[in-house]
Each structure stands twice: as structure tokens, then as C-alpha cells.
């Protein structure tokens, strides 16, 4: 289960995600990220308090990033915890996505 909050900081729509982005939560994660992408030119997914992400969660993030690219929007992932960062690294998504240690805004 995940909890999603949003705020705008310095021109970025920041989508903060807490909990576990597993198969059960992947659709909700994708919907939240896509909604942010559809409404804003710059979106940052803040995963500082995300405890776990599965392949389904990674797919949701990738789909949102692709939607942003199609719209010509910026999309970044920020604040990855060590376990979540390992999953991104093992999947190879760190080569595809813009990842920052802290929020880009």
C-alpha cells in the first residue's frame, strides 16, 4: 500500500510516495504520477520515504516517464532510499530515468 501527497516547489510538481510500491499499489502509483504529468511541465517523484518497489512499481514509474516524454515534460525521480536505489540500479532504469539524490527543485 502507498500513500501519495503532492505539492508544488519552485516550479516542480512533487509527488511524494510513502509505503510499498508493489503489485497491489502499482496502478495507484501510475495513476498519481500520470495525473501529475498531465497537469504540469515538471514532475518529480520523491521516493525518500518509499520502503520498497517491485517490478510492477518500476513499470508504473517508467510509464509515467514515457508519458512525460511524449508531452515534452520533465520527469525526475528523487530521494531514493538505499534498498529502492538498488532495485533501480539492478533494473537498469538508472540509465533511462533522471535520478537525483535530492529533489531537483
Question: Could you walk me through the main structural features you see in this protein, from its secondary elements to its overall organization?
Answer:
Helix 2 (55-71) links the parallel strand 3 and strand 4. This protein has helices at 26-39, 55-71, 82-91; strands spanning 2-9, 12-21, 42-53, 74-78, 98-100. The chain contains 3 helices and 5 strands, in the order ββαβαβαβ. Helices cover 39% and strands 36% of the residues. The model has no long low-confidence stretch (mean pLDDT 93). It has a single domain (2-100), classed as STAS domain (Transcription Regulator spoIIAA, 2-Layer Sandwich), CATH 3.30.750.24. It has 105 residues and is an alpha/beta fold.
Q: Helical segment tally?
A: 3
Helix fraction, binned, reads: 25-40%
Widest sheet, order of strands: 1-2-3-4-5
Give the radius of gyration.
12 Å
In terms of per-residue confidence, which ranges show pLDDT below 50 for 5 or more consecutive residues? none
The CATH topology assignment is Transcription Regulator spoIIAA
Reading the helices and strands in chain order gives EEHEHEHE
How many extended strands? Answer: 5
Our count of domains comes out at 1
Q: How much strand?
A: 35-45%
Query: Tell me, what's the shape?
Result: globular
The average pLDDT is 93
Amino acid at each position: 500500500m502507498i500513500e501519495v501527497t503532492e505539492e508544488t516547489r519552485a516550479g516542480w510538481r512533487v509527488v511524494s510516495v510513502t509505503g510499498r510500491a508493489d503489485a497491489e499499489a502499482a496502478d495507484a502509483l501510475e495513476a498519481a504520477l500520470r495525473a501529475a504529468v498531465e497537469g504540469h511541465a515538471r514532475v518529480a517523484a520523491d521516493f525518500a520515504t518509499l520502503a520498497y518497489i517491485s517490478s510492477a512499481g518500476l513499470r508504473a514509474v517508467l510509464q509515467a516517464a514515457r508519458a512525460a516524454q511524449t508531452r515534452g515534460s520533465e520527469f525526475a525521480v528523487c530521494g531514493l532510499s538505499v534498498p529502492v536505489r538498488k532495485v533501480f540500479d539492478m533494473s537498469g532504469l538508472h540509465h533511462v530515468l533522471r535520478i537525483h539524490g535530492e529533489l531537483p527543485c
